[in-house]
Amino acid sequence: MKSPGNSEQVELNRSLGLWSALSLVIGTIIGVGIFVRQAAVINEAGSAKAALLAWLAGGLLTLAAGLTIAEIASQNPSTGGLYAYMEQIYNQFWGFLSGWMQIIVYGPAMIAALGSYLAVLVGDFFNTAPIWHLPIALGSVCLVGILNMFPNRYGGAFAIITTICKLVPVAALIIFGLFFGRADAFSSSIQGLQTTAGGFGVAMLATLFAFDGWILVANLGGEIKNPRKMLPRAITLGILTVMGIYLLVSYGVLKSIGAQKVHDLGTAAIPYIAQKDFGQIGGKILSIGIIISIIGCMNGKIMTFPRIMYAMAKQDQLPWSKKLAYLNRKTRTPIFSIIAVIVIAGLMIVLTNPDRISELCIFTIYCFYVMAFVGLFLLRRRNPNQPRVFSVPLFPLTPLLAIAGSLFVIGSEILSDPIGVIVSLSIVAVGCPVYYFKVMRKHHN
């Protein structure tokens, strides 16, 4: 094995095609949200029709965001995604902060939260004692991490397999709801909630969180074949596919048992439908589907977040940059960056509540989203005559819609969790002295 100092001789393997990229978009979006957020959306919307409209509105806002980023990605298909875009549009400081937040807190917290939830589901499936939850969570994160130390085609193939597997229970819910459901999926409402519900806006906010993760495939810009064309296609087709799936699942659930029953059952609504339609074996099949869904989602995140760390380390912006920028000569993967993200995620599983930490970062990630969306206008003004492989349709309406949706999330977070917003900003602020000592001092010297 060569020393880390020779890592510049090895390049990332540009081997991922459209199907791998598309599976990563779908796989990183569809985790557990579609299975557990049905009741939350209906409770806030107050009626079946309003709930379906909330899912549609959330999908359209996400699509607007995806189309906006797709144009930026077509011009700068670099490894690092949002980090690379922020650096290109603004400067190295803003790029660093967006990357810092993603690799130190947001990404590892999301991976850790998925591992913790997976451990509970696996424990319930095999009736194991709660004492096994911690080793199962840590073991699952480590195993998926090891998979991603092999050439990226293995992670890409795994994304395709898990995406297909997770769509089997989703398809069953849709088919049985559409063809065998007897409830009124459009006009049913929840008694007593119409006046107390948080309203359509809060319901839409719940769906936006279920759509999050679409941008992560952009972190693999240096490993996707013909990324200027493939990235926009993968992002657009992926979001459209997920939007269709979410709408059909929600409609199928409402047609199966109605809005009132979904409200009464809460997060148990979909397991109830599975057992009602398929018997006891249905519950087991659904549990397997959710477990596979979580593993696939975790694979997408472990595959993408270390690429941000690798891209930052290549520019010597992080402590131990030589190690973190190292690519294994045989696998051509950033193994030390993968290990670093796994270690941080593991510490979060053991020491913190990773689900809460990932929630805290929602505010700052959407702040960076807004800056990136505004950046499209800046790029067009700077380079008015530059030919574009992909142009966002309905410009400027589409990026304006993306900005409005992100500002809605930011405003909602400020109103609902001001302490969390302060903590979120503090996490980003910690990156400032790191940037100064690692980047600015290097320039001054």
UniProtKB/TrEMBL annotation:
Keyword Cell inner membrane: no
GO CC annotations on file: membrane
TM ranges: 21-40, 52-73, 93-119, 131-150, 157-180, 200-222, 234-254, 285-310, 331-351, 357-379, 391-412, 418-437
Subcellular location: Membrane
UniProt cross-references to InterPro entries, sorted A to Z: AA/rel_permease1, AminoAcid_Transporter
Membrane topology: Multi-pass membrane protein
A single MF term (Gene Ontology): L-amino acid transmembrane transporter activity
Source organism superkingdom: Bacteria
Keywords carried by this UniProt record: Membrane, Transmembrane, Transmembrane helix
Key word Transmembrane present: yes
Protein name listed in UniProt: Amino acid transport protein
Organism annotation: Fructilactobacillus florum 8D
Lineage per the UniProt record: Bacteria, Bacillati, Bacillota, Bacilli, Lactobacillales
